[in-house]
Specification:
It is a single chain. This protein has one domain (2-89). It contains 3 helices and 5 strands; from the N terminus they run H-H-E-E-E-E-E-H. The chain has helices spanning 2-18, 27-33, 68-89, and strands at residues 34-39, 43-45, 48-50, 53-57, 61-62. Strand 2 and strand 3 form a beta hairpin. The radius of gyration is 19 Å and the shape is extended.
Length: 90
């Protein structure tokens, strides 16, 4: 089972490498990468109407991207680590 997942991820990465500079999103590209898209019920968040979507990619399923807050936290952690690394070499 784990080997199947690794193979699927490797296959997906190879597809991505073929499309490093997509200028136009064509139906062929969408069909190659996306298995299906699930649109959830309408939600109102902070007064704005949104329709959450989940994109299921061929071979690997859904990819949960970090939120803006999580990206900021990772960025700050990386800056702190860079600073610590710099102190160690100084």
């Amino acid at each position: 089972m784990q080997n199947d997942k690794a193979a699927n991820v490797s296959e997906f990465v190879e597809k991505v490498r073929r499309y490093t500079e997509i200028k136009e999103l064509t139906p062929a590209i969408v069909n190659e990468f996306i298995d299906y898209i699930m649109v959830s019920k309408k939600q109102v968040i902070d007064g704005k109407t949104v329709y959450p979507i989940d994109i299921y990619y061929n071979g690997i399923g859904i990819i949960n991207a970090p939120s803006a807050e999580e990206y900021e936290e990772m960025f700050q952690e990386r800056l702190k680590q860079k600073h610590l690394d710099k102190e160690k070499t100084a």
